[in-house]
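Retro notes
What went well: the complex prediction finally ran end to end.
Inputs used:
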Amino acid sequence: MINRQPARLPQHVAIIMDGNGRWAQQRGLPRTMGHRKGVEAVRETVRVAGEVGISYLTLFAFSSENWSRPETEVSDLMGLLKAFIRRDLAELHSENVRIRVIGSRENLRGDILPLLIEAEDTTRHNSGLTLVIAFNYGARDEIARAARKLAVKLAAGEISAQQIDAVALDRELDTFGMPDPDLVIRTSGEERLSNFLLWQAAYAELLFVPEYWPDFTRETFIAAIEKYGRRDRRFGGVNPVAAAVS
Ligand code: FPP
């Protein structure tokens, strides 16, 4: 039974921005050029998300596993992220964008953490699009950190073992207070989650698009949102229309 629901807008879109390296390689350019072009795609994507009325946009900017890349590439990615915040923060703030950062904040060296905190603090009271930057992020690490926080509360006698459930754990995640992603998009044709929002994406619609991230345009994004609008989400239940006719 085909269920045609009216087009719906995802409240939260999360994106695995993959394929910068391959984009560059295809053109005989150094990988770093792919990342640079990727920042332009970030700007356009943030703009479109705000325009169409998405409430949360999460971008996987740097995973906890990305530290194993060559030092020059890591430092280039750091440089690009820092430049993005330095150059774009004022504009994002004036556009009422709120910035939140998820990921581990331990053992971060240099000025990256102060910059991320500044971005969060400056935009704390903004009520438009929330741009969530996943930095030094890994879902298993996030879940383990949340479990540790619950263990500390348990040991301190603040909570009982019976109070540890999905809601309690959810509250300790970096994403506390945000809705779960409705739509997770991964570019470059790879079809996996790579340790991204494993808990939160339990019922997300997954969309894998062939374009490399630097080629992710306004049109690609809007087509993805439209595709999401045609998906039938059941959250483990049954579609009410299908249930009525069976
Ligand atoms: C994946 O491509 C992309 C990344 C690891 C980093 C994404 C970062 C940016 C687009 C720039 C900074 C971010 C912000 C929010 C300003 P890849 O290098 O894994 O590509 P490949 O799989 O083709 O090698």
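What we learned: Confidence is low (pLDDT under 50) at residues 1-6.
What to try next: split runs per interface for comparison.
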